[in-house]
Design a protein that fits this description.
alpha/beta, TIM Barrel, 10-stranded mixed sheet, two-stranded antiparallel sheet, globular
């Protein structure tokens, strides 16, 4: 029997060989750890649909920041649960609120930790939508000033990067203008340029208390069927001054990550969202799959698709698992 000259299995025989020819490497420095900031002291409130994730007061946020640095995770992103909500989401830019206080505390204690802030109104509005409501519709242009004020309040608190996630048209330009006007020329914008109207956000909305009180977000978040539109959104945000881009969700949109990476030369983030996390946790609790192997395989697929950084609730666990494998 004539065997082929080329045998790909030769390079798969041992762990050392597989590691030697590995094309994509997943590292703790690839991760951004999402944190939910709430007012109070010594608060650690579990989120039922996201095992291992909590609403945390500022003192506990600081402990998480320290743990991230110890594990080699370079960045966190903060979401807020405010003391009060109103129709305009004015708590979003209140300097006494949890996110602003958490930013300041983290930067005082750990200046080397990158602190990113989510810029949106959905957690802060009484109706749960990402902008002002007029006649039952989200009003795009009137929302831009509130988003700019929110981003500015984060920058004043010390945020390293602001990340608008609202999907209003023109938000990057509005935020860039406000930051520059007030002396924050060096504060980068990580735009959620490609954010789909996804069913994978359910657990997050429980965690952040941001479930819409009427309707849904499909009039401003993207249709999951569209790819060309993603590139249009990216081009617009590039023109408005975005410094970094994001695709959200990640797992069902690996093709979009690849397309965006091919179309731009900016750093690209992928958000391994709450539903993706919760599915793995739930199946692992049932004993239906190996949590460690599945989580790392998911994260590796995002990196392989073209993501330079991955926002993931698995960040701390994955950092430990990767260290164990090294």
């Amino acid at each position: 029997m004539n065997f082929p000259i080329v045998r790909p299995r030769r390079l798969r025989k041992t762990a050392a060989l597989r590691s030697f020819v590995r094309e994509t490497e997943l590292l703790p420095r690839d991760f951004v750890y999402p944190l939910f900031a709430i007012n109070g002291k010594n608060v650690k409130k579990p989120i039922a649909s996201m095992p291992g994730v909590y609403q945390l007061s500022v003192d506990n946020i600081v402990r998480e920041g320290e743990e991230c640095l110890r594990l080699g995770i370079p960045a966190v992103i903060l979401f807020g649960i405010p003391a009060s909500k109103d129709e305009k989401g004015t708590s979003a830019f209140d300097p006494a609120e949890a996110v602003q206080q958490a930013v300041s505390a983290l930067k005082r204690q750990f200046p080397e930790l990158l602190v990113i802030t989510d810029v949106c109104l959905c957690e802060y509005t009484s109706h749960g939508h990402c902008g002002l409501i007029t006649a039952g519709e989200v009003e795009n242009d009137l929302t831009l000033n509130l988003l700019a004020q929110t981003a500015l309040s984060h920058a004043r608190a010390g945020a390293d990067i602001v990340a608008p996630s609202d999907m209003m048209d023109g938000r990057v330009a509005a935020i860039r203008s406000a930051l520059d006007e007030h002396g924050f020329v060096q504060t980068p914008i990580m735009s959620y340029a490609v954010k789909y109207a996804s069913a994978f956000y359910g657990p997050f909305r429980d965690a952040a208390g941001s479930v819409p009180q009427f309707g849904d977000r499909r009039s401003y978040q993207m249709d999951p069927a569209n790819c060309r539109e993603a590139l249009k959104e990216v081009a617009q945000d590039l023109a408005e001054g975005a410094d970094m881009l994001m695709v959200k969700p990640a797992l069902a949109y690996l093709d979009i990550i690849r397309a965006v990476k091919a179309a731009t030369n900016l750093p690209l983030a992928a958000y391994n969202v709450s539903g993706e996390y919760a599915m793995v946790k739930a199946a692992a609790e049932k004993g239906w799959l190996d949590e460690k192997r599945v989580a790392l395989e998911m994260l590796l697929s995002m990196k392989r698709a073209g993501a330079d950084m991955i926002l993931t609730y698995f960040a701390k666990e994955a950092a430990v698992w990767l260290k164990e494998e090294s």
